[in-house]
Amino acid sequence: MSPKQQRGEATVERALEAALFVYTRDGEQGFTVGAITRAGALSPGSLYHHFGNLDGLVHALVQRWLERLMTPLATALLEADSAREGIRAAVRAYLDFVRDHPDAALLLHSATADRHGMAHAKELRDAQEARLSPLAAWLQHRIATGELADVSPSLMESLILGPVVATARRHLTLRDTDLDEAARELPERIWSAVRG
């Protein structure tokens, strides 16, 4: 890698770190190009060069942290011996991510990420295709064998992750939800809703 490429990668890294820092510190209202460039000691031109605009930066940031969420979640699910154990492992992996990366989890569960996700849903899904395909195959196989209820994979995904996402949002915003309790209770409650 050339020195110019190394500098470019370092700039991208600083911009992404600064963007997450600013979002966590200032929320959506303070999430501006000026605040991010100041926090990362970046020029506005370098931010525009690497990301195009603020939406491009949000896209890169959301992609980065979705990848970091989905990797352990997919691993946990795919390594499980049964559908029930897979659900338990996936719920725990998701809640562990929220506990271990609260700033990134706050961003991923924010109105900013929701708007971005709605505007770029297909693009985000396509970017995660390599990770999502094995999960879809796992769900389809477990549905076909009767371990999971016979509903569409998209509905099954909502039944499994919907309660976990809602719990994470509540924990991150209201701080009135105990993640340890959720890790104990949610897997069996979800299992009772999705088992075949």
TrEMBL record:
Record has ATP-binding as a keyword: no
UniProt xrefs under SUPFAM superfamilies: Homeodomain-like, Tetracyclin repressor-like, C-terminal domain
Record-linked Gene3D superfamilies: Tetracycline Repressor, domain 2
Protein's UniProt keywords contain Transcription: yes
Entry-linked InterPro entries: Homeodomain-like_sf, HTH_TetR, Tet_transcr_reg_TetR-rel_C_sf
Domain HTH tetR-type, first and last residues per copy: 9-69
DNA-binding region, residue intervals: 32-51
Domain of life: Bacteria
Keywords: DNA-binding, Transcription, Transcription regulation
Pfam families (alphabetical): TetR_N
PANTHER family per the UniProt record, alphabetical: HTH-TYPE TRANSCRIPTIONAL REGULATOR YJDC, TRANSCRIPTIONAL REGULATORY PROTEIN
Protein name: TetR/AcrR family transcriptional regulator
